[in-house]
Design brief:
The chain is of the alpha/beta class. It is 28% helix and 34% strand. Strands 3-2-1-4-5-11-10 form a 7-stranded mixed beta sheet, sandwiched between helices. Strand 2, helix 5 and strand 3 form a beta-alpha-beta unit. The longest helix is centred in the first third of the chain and has 15 residues. The two termini are 34 Å apart. The relative contact order is 0.14.
């Protein structure tokens, strides 16, 4: 099964990091500063970063003094993240579809549309269950997802990027269920040609409300960008949901 899952291959590729190098520690720190200012997280809280990648958001949270655990299924990403481990910053290789620690964390985060990649609805529900079960009662979950309507209206169908001598030709499209991004990579110096295709589900606020409520988690606030402005169904680039585990 692993060989057919695009995200296992693409997220572990060094070309992924090159293409998205603008997603740096400074950007993560800005996002964390805004969120923690709103959440007012108590000292001593335990935080979980789900699908943490190389841990840029985890590191920003730990820098504020919280005990942070991050996990991701990409072994190369976690290997890199582990370079920054401390007594309050921990990383593990883990698949969000499988149970993690139960009733342990005060807060859980899923940043930058690190969700919606799976083939079936059952797998997505399994992932939501994992996150919900990891939280203590009255724990807080933050889901940061794209806004489907905005993404449809602002889709850039074709793009070409050249990064450090590597050419990326990018095509984007969508259907009723998913957004797609096909990335063709050419590195002439190494005679390298490869193509990856990203896929993400077109989950709406209503979809998240249903998935979360089934696991005993209720959405309490929705923001439309990293400045935490109000969410607008057509104008907001993001859908940042803050929810609480009620049972």
């Amino acid at each position: 099964m692993a060989a057919t899952e695009w995200f296992r291959l693409w997220f572990s590729s060094p070309y992924y990091d090159q293409l998205y190098m603008q997603r740096d520690q400074q950007e993560a720190a800005f996002c964390i500063e805004k969120l923690t200012g709103f959440l007012k997280i108590p000292t001593g809280s335990r935080l979980l970063d789900v699908a943490c990648g190389k841990g840029r958001h985890s590191r920003a949270l730990a820098a504020l003094g919280f005990d942070v655990t991050g996990f991701d299924l990409s072994e190369p990403s976690i290997k890199e993240a582990k370079r920054f481990e401390t007594d309050r910053l921990h990383f593990s290789v883990h698949d969000m579809r499988l149970p993690f620690w139960i009733n342990y964390f005060d807060y859980a985060f899923n940043f930058f549309t690190s969700f919606g990649y799976f083939r079936t609805m059952r797998e997505h529900n399994d992932a939501v269950r994992t996150i919900a079960q990891s939280l203590k009662l009255n724990g807080t979950l933050v889901f940061d997802y794209l806004n489907v309507h905005y993404a449809e209206d602002h889709l850039v169908k074709r793009e070409e990027k050249r990064v450090n001598g590597i050419l990326y030709n990018i095509d984007r499209w969508f259907d009723q269920e998913r957004f797609y991004k096909r990335i063709h990579i050419e590195e002439a110096a190494k005679h390298f040609n490869e193509t990856y295709t990203e896929q993400v589900e077109k989950f709406s606020l209503g979809d998240f409300t249903d998935m979360l409520s089934y696991q005993g988690v209720m959405i309490e606030h929705v923001f439309g960008d990293y400045e935490l402005n109000s969410y607008h169904i057509k104008k907001s680039p993001r859908m940042i949901m803050v929810a609480r585990k009620i049972h």
